[in-house]
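Fold this sequence, please.
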Amino acid sequence: MITDMYIKEYSTINIPIPGVVPILKEISKRVPLVINPNGLPDAQYQKIKAIGLGDVFSSIVLSEELGIRKPDSGIFHHTASLLEVQPSDCLCVGDSYRNDIVEAKAAGMQACWFNREIGKSGISGVQPDFTITDFNKLREILGLS
């Protein structure tokens, strides 16, 4: 019962980062996008749809469906194989330094840290290729501006 309530209400309490939906829609017309969140599949699919990103991703890789949960870098290797590219040809954009940035770098990907807290630092020895506080910067990073 609690799980059912969580799944039903989860998408209603997650508000997208301001401006992210139109930017990702624009980028998705030129670059394939994959999302790979941790979490219950029903809740994640509902959230993606509720915030208006249901048609943006060429693939949705849910850790629970794949059986590999971040921070395991295997999820990043799987994502690259879905896109039929080498990990070095991918850019992982994430807000969790440990789960996204560190493991994407371990998988051989480029990494862009969406750092909501200006001044917050990551883990010593692992540096993202890019750090942003505004998703508009992705256009420039991807050479789409």
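The radius of gyration is 15 Å. The chain has a mean pLDDT of 87.
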